[in-house]
Design a protein that fits this description.
The structure is a homodimer. Chain A is of the alpha/beta class and about 325 residues long. The first copy, chain A, has one domain: Ribokinase (UDP-N-acetylmuramoyl-L-alanine:D-glutamate ligase, 3-Layer(aba) Sandwich), CATH 3.40.1190.20. Chain A is built from eleven helices and 14 strands. In chain A, strands 1, 4, 5, 6, 9, 10, 11, 12, 13 and 14 form a ten-stranded mixed β-sheet that branches. In chain A, strands 3-2-7-8 form a four-stranded mixed β-sheet. In chain A, a hairpin with a 2-residue loop joins strand 2 and strand 3. In chain A, helix 1 runs parallel beside helix 8 and helix 8 packs antiparallel against helix 9. Chain A is globular, with a radius of gyration of 19 Å. Chains A and B meet through helix 7, strand 14, helix 8, helix 9 and helix 11 of A and helix 7, strand 14, helix 8, helix 9 and helix 11 of B.
Chain lengths: ~325, ~325
Amino acid sequence: MAITAVGSVALDSIETPFGSIEHVLGGALSHFALAASLYDTVNMVAVVGTDFPERFMQHFRARSIDLRGLQVREGATFRWGARYHLDMNTRDTLYTHLGVFADFHPTVPAEYRGAEVIFLDNILPQLQLDVQRQTDEVAATDGSTRLRALDTMNLWIETTREDLLRVMRGVDIMLIAEEEARQLAETPSLRVAARFILERGPKLLVVKQGSYGAVMFGADGSFFAAPAYPLEDVCDPTGAGDAFAGGFLGYLASRLTRAGRVTETDYRRALIHGNILGSFACEAFGVERLLTLTPEQIAERYEEFVGFTHFEGSWRDAPTG
Amino acid sequence: MAITAVGSVALDSIETPFGSIEHVLGGALSHFALAASLYDTVNMVAVVGTDFPERFMQHFRARSIDLRGLQVREGATFRWGARYHLDMNTRDTLYTHLGVFADFHPTVPAEYRGAEVIFLDNILPQLQLDVQRQTDEVAATDGSTRLRALDTMNLWIETTREDLLRVMRGVDIMLIAEEEARQLAETPSLRVAARFILERGPKLLVVKQGSYGAVMFGADGSFFAAPAYPLEDVCDPTGAGDAFAGGFLGYLASRLTRAGRVTETDYRRALIHGNILGSFACEAFGVERLLTLTPEQIAERYEEFVGFTHFEGSWRDAPTG
């Protein structure tokens, strides 16, 4: 069973205080798919140019990533360049060359439309709406359990807010970075921002907090929070949020495949998987670490998470004094 | 059975986007003592001027706070004024009038010297050294289990670094805000900063992360992390870090009193108590919320913490597919 995801595949050039790489596999969907495919099949809906290196196609094929929805168009692949500051928390975009992405018209292959999880990764909300329409048709006819999720960014909040709000009305889960949640809701209070978002479509809001972990708000008033994995060094945070989404939705997809439904327990576990995949993504440049990651390494880090977050449920022992 | 703590007692004037207060009870030690005294007796070592209002003395006397070490000197009490920005995360100090605090010579009453917990709250490291000398004499002769803890701030890291490093050599626990840990160790990596600090005296480092909670590193390689309590609104964050220290050390002191020792389980619970007291402190101006706080409300929030942080220890159910 599968996740159908639309988003960007790009060639990234990244400079950090510790090194740099040029024209490597990038784009939110690449990070997402390489993470999520450790859990379930990922159907890609995206576009690349004829300059897209065959070896990057091989990275996808080596995993359970279906490429029938990946269009190859005459022209240049989307290219993005950025430079990180010394603290690795802020970066400057050096250039954005859209290439064939400028005229991208996503077409969801018929085989993809019935996937259990639909992920509208961070791209122009109009394109997200387009994919939403194509996949909603199928859901209406077969009626099986499915999760529709959305990610976005500051650019769309600033430039195409109304379209973004329209996409939100048709999703179950929204994933968003903390500053962007505040920006979208125009409030400094994260709880107020969560209520704003949960009143506009999503039943679950997942807030990504970078090196502080993630929190999750349910429309039913539920709340869950988990710290991040304490990395010794961050090599390159590019794509960590996308890998987070991959771990989160990948885990949920695998549960839907196994059990036909997801529970509150699964959502909590999924958030831990998001934190885990996000942490691995930071350990090497670009998608490098995701390429070598194994389910055993994920399981090991999950055990570590349990170890460094759990505490006694009773706030003190029986009085002895 | 008690905590002996040295620090500042002040009269604060605070402006936030939502209101302002003038000349209210403030100073790191006031917040600390009102929080910690919900768990155990607090012996105060501090100085105020003859202008210090009697009603503030009553706040201390209403709790198990011993005032024999609180000097009252001819002159003005330390006064501090600050204005918070709209996001409540940053503030400008408007004035600092040291008053009688400028000539403060802490004298630890003989009855205070054998306390189980010694807390060198955030003041000039030279004064911390002075108190350390006075209390260490007793420890040397009686040899009972005791915890010596330290807090500090950016000002002392910048201006009296060598004295601060000297104080660190003689403590068991260091509490510090995240930015200050990085500043002290001159590194962007929190793990590297933790190692730097743990090589210089403290056996346990507690890093306060404000609205993101707290993490704890042990010299034995142990690690624990917990998110913050998700407050709807922050009324006034002044003293939240001091209330955190009060919850953390107060809980440990109560365990030492009951059980004669503290375990890893206790340290983890203590960190949750720190987060709880820090969250309550933000709910009203100055020390207001700490004055009305009850053990039952602490216990209730502890249960909430368990509820929104725990997750399944196994990363998936037995395969069914």
